[in-house]
Amino acid sequence: QEAEDPSVPLLERLKFLGIFSNNLDEFFRVRVATQLRLMQLDKGIKQYVTDKPKKVVQKIKRIVEGFQQRFDTVFAKIVAELKAQNIFIVNEQELSSEQEAYVRDLFRISIAPSIAPIMVSRLEVFPELTDRSIYLAIKMWVENDDQEQQETEQPNEQEYALVEIPTNDHSRFVRLPDVGEKKYIILLDDVIRFCLNQVFDILPYNKFEAYTIKITRDAELDVDNDIAESLLEKISKGLRNRNKGQPVRFVYDSAITPDLLQFIIDKMSLDAEDNLLAGARYHNFRDFISFPHLGCLSLVNEPLPPIPCERLERAPSILAEVAKKDISLHYPYHSFSYYTRMLREAAIDPQVTSIKITLYRVATESKVVKALMNAAYNGKSVTVVIELMARFDEGANIYWSKRMEEAGVKVIFGIYGLKVHNKQTLITREENGKLVNYATVSTGNFHEGNANLYTDINIFTADKRITSEVEKVFSFLEYNYKTFNYRYLWVSPLSMRRKLYMHIDTEIANARKKLPAYIHCKINNIVDLDVIRKLYQASNAGVKIKLMVRGICSLVPGVPEQSENIEVVSVVDRFLEHSRFFIFCNNNHPKYFISSADWMTRNLDHRVEVAIPILDSDIQAEVRAVFDAGFKDNVKGRVIDEKQTNALRNSVGEKPYRSQIELYNYYLKEYKKSLKD
């Protein structure tokens, strides 16, 4: 929808196609892979699933084929609109003589050393194709210009080869020299296509055809139970095997010659259950997320630089400010740098004795991790609970785990059987002979890259009611045999589900007494069937429920005698909506919570998650403003209903209200007001 929207800047529309492609890849690697695994179990799973996995996979394939057609149409339209802006995406057959010379020189000097062709028609065993890579499947032969000789001789021999497109070494997008005001881009795939005669110049062939293919594999990590290996060794081994996982999708250029396609299918032992999908000329559209801006500022979103937090901007000590009053930072409206600054402050503060943190995903060059290592170098006791099973970030987490251990950080690899998904920090200082705790609890990862794109709320507090229980969570993570009772925090898998139901039951009871009753929630996914049934029960009791759900929503709103009191909207815009919070009416004495957990079975029962109450009235008002803005959005807000059309909430005659822009202006106004105060 965003890629189709003409009001979205052109290059941002390309990015949304890239996001769609990346999400679809992950869907096959995880969700479809699960269905294929279930198919292997056959009869043993009937009692656990409503639809046969084979039927589910077939339905998915039909839907994806429809998406592919829509995707190709949108891409063609965007390419045409880019031409009107003097930006031309050309292929190898559209090059001018000057561009041909430029491409050949570029290939010879820069790209050719990264090309490693595999002559597959000469091999007994077909090579393992790497997941998430793209390949050119190449057919080559000799075409004789002498027509008479062609008619008398035997058909020419042909060979097949594979070339992996080296996107790890080179940008997928090659900018050609401008011609006047016209800007030209050619994809790396087409550069290689154009130069195939250079790649195979020692062979006798003079005709080449190349078609893109791609394999998607099961991304599940199979971790064995060898007690002689550490968890880190097991995950490392699982990562090495991931690229050899079972195929779950094979995508190929629909123009590929039948003989070459059949050769690949036979050699790879693929069948219909491996989801053979004909696609367009280009695959791995996720690379379009990084399509060059080309200096065309009108074709990208207007920058929204982070708004300063006046209390922290000039304060010499962030911890001193937190001691005075709770602080909330809402990324990316606010800068993540205040958080890393707090860690750097703690690293050199002589009164800080320890720092504890949970890490699920971290940036490639993580300033957070570097600050923690610096603290360890300065003699602080630093404990990091890092989740090695964070899907698709396992490799980065293993790398940083080793670096931190070398620096003297105590690294804990979570809890066996439970992913550690909560996001919290605890800094302990010695003040006047006593130990004082400072905590941060966030809805998102301590990841400075994500903080530029994901909306998340991070609360800084020195309130003993919160910090004492955050300390208990760390004790549980470090010593799993220690369990605690929590008065303020909701902690899964121990108490989060029970406390959630307790608050829903309070609203049900109040509704039945004709008292004010509502539940307002912003979350990423609602999937857990028991939670959904509980919300249906609340709806039937008269509780007014408003939900903002960015991702998967298995709850069906607006159904008479089931969910007629439930409204669900979803906001998709330039920032990824990621914050999670709940507001319960409580007879007009609202209770506010932020949480790391979605309402999914895995979050409530199989992960360590934390929700905390928001005790500061100013932060409560801010969270209320965030929710109201999202629910009011009639530009980027979608209606979630049983039709599953995700129709935009455009209201005829209403003034356009785009929540992310309105929130940016809200925080900007608050900042300007604080300057005057």
Search tags:
single chain; 677 residues; alpha/beta; polyphosphate kinase like; Endonuclease, Chain A; ten-stranded mixed β-sheet; eight-stranded mixed β-sheet; 26 strands; globular
Commentary on this structure:
The longest helix has 32 residues, at 10-41. By secondary structure, the protein is an alpha/beta fold. Strand 4 (173-179) and strand 5 form a beta hairpin. The chain contains 19 helices and 26 strands. The chain folds into 3 domains: 10-294, polyphosphate kinase like, CATH 3.30.1840; 310-478, Endonuclease, Chain A, CATH 3.30.870; 490-676, Endonuclease, Chain A, CATH 3.30.870.10. Strands 13, 17, 18, 19, 20, 22, 23, 24, 25 and 26 form a 10-stranded mixed sheet that branches. Strands 9, 10, 11, 12, 14, 15, 16 and 21 form an 8-stranded mixed sheet that branches. Helix 1 (10-41) runs antiparallel to helix 2 (53-84), helix 11 runs parallel beside helix 12 and helix 15 packs parallel to helix 16. Residues 148-155 and 223-229 have low confidence and may be disordered.
Q: Could you give a short description of this structure?
A:
The chain is of the alpha/beta class and 677 residues long. Helices cover 37% and strands 22% of the residues.
